[in-house]
Amino acid sequence: MGAGDSRRRGSPSHAHPRSLRLPKGTVDVGSFATCRPQAGSDGETDSFSGYRPNVGGVLFTRRMSTHGTTLREGIATAISVLAEPVGTLAPGRLSASDYIAALREVEDLGRLVDAARIALAGEAEKRTQGPIDTLGALGYASAVDAVAMLTSAADRDAKRRIRIGESLNAGMSLTGAETGCAHPVVAASVFAGNLSIDVSTIIIDALDGVGNRVDESVLRQAEESLVELAAGTPDHPPLRADLVRGQVQLFLELIDPDGSLPREEAARRKRCLRIGRETQDGLIPVHGLLTLEVGASLKRLVDAHVRKVSFTDDPDSLVDHVDDRLPQQKRHDTLADILSAAARVKDAPELAGSAPTISVTVTQAALDAGWGVGAIDGFDTPISVQAIEKMIDSRGTQHIIFNDKGRALALGSVQRCFTPSQRRVIAARDGGCVIPGCTAPAGWCEVHHVIPWRDGGATHTDNGVLLCWGHHQSIDKGPWELSMPDGIPHVRGPGHWTWTHTTKSRSRPPSTPTG
């Protein structure tokens, strides 16, 4: 085969002018046994500098094609031009218009660079197949290993680049002609710099997921429409990746209405909830996968009660803010309220013949002193007396008397701090957590002793108020204070600098503030 024919095989046939896909090099057929580095060799080498291939099979034996040279020269020029302005970039010194323009223009540049990244990565797997493993000959364990090592990318990023690159790169037949790619419309937009890798990944994964159930012409129409929506047109701007994901789901429902059934069945098989061992800090890791309906219900329930409470700025306010919990902390506390309510339902399942109960061991001396620690049964991390007192408030106690050698001498009856009847009265009066702005309903709340139980506070409706789990944990530290004049809950705190009666009850309006 002549040199002219070889060059014609190596020349690319692009569908658009800005394609950055690399063609295969010129090939010869030989028969060799090993591959060794040829240090200082002046002869022709393949594109891996310093190596002369001598392994049997189809080999790259000529120098890099004109296309490869042009690409590398362009990359070198771009690096030299951008090195100084990027190295001296000070975003804080940019004007508003320059800042906005730079965000967009750098993203345009980044999309072109990303297109080249995935094009090159998408070729890696091919280099490991066939009669010769070019990357393996250089010591790489796999295509993923080669891309990750050469680019310093994480393995998961290397895998994604390879997978997307394979979908967008044109194939090559035995005659040397390009065979097209799996997603030509996405490829044209990506290599033109109009579509990001994140967005192209969303579209490709969605279309591939239904490819075996939907007619090819329908898939192509969906691909064209999704790319137009995502990349934008003169009539509408491009969509954010999150919005593209939503549009993709709408298209899938139209072209594959029955596809949701197998997807949901697969999701149900994967559902799980795992509760790990407690950490040294006394935190228990929880993770898992919830089905869509369960996860949506939990999210809606939690989000409905995770609200930022704010008041009009007032110079006389005791503190500058109402709730300094982070959103994730609020979600945790709301989940605690839900669990507390679930444990109190009448038909809750029993465990070992009784209602699910947390057993906490603590000495009477520690309770009397108001400091020290106890232990929750089954966990190694100690728990403070202050936390135990909060649990006694809402769950009651049962005394077990031991002698000094640890022998159990007596078991007392369960002492409920507030009976179910008292709780119903308090719930009717308060209607929910008494802290202003808190949306926790009465059924989720715990009953709190305004005068602490250890200080002789009576277990009476005149001394009990409803607090959600989060406010119950922090009530002793502020910023809120509680009082019970005439058995009516009053609060004082941010935005309420005088004692104010608050209630969420629909049958009882708040009384007027008192001085």
Automatic annotation (TrEMBL):
A Pfam family reported for this protein in Swiss-Prot or TrEMBL: HNH_2
Record-linked InterPro entries: DUF222, HNH_nuc
Ranges for domain HNH nuclease: 421-473
UniProt keyword Cell cycle, yes or no: no
Region ranges (Disordered): 1-27, 493-515
Gene Ontology terms, MF aspect: endonuclease activity
CDD domains: HNHc
Gene3D superfamilies for this protein: 1.10.30.50
Biased composition (Basic residues): 9-21
Protein keywords: Endonuclease, Hydrolase, Nuclease
Protein name according to UniProt: HNH endonuclease
Organism of provenance: Labedella endophytica
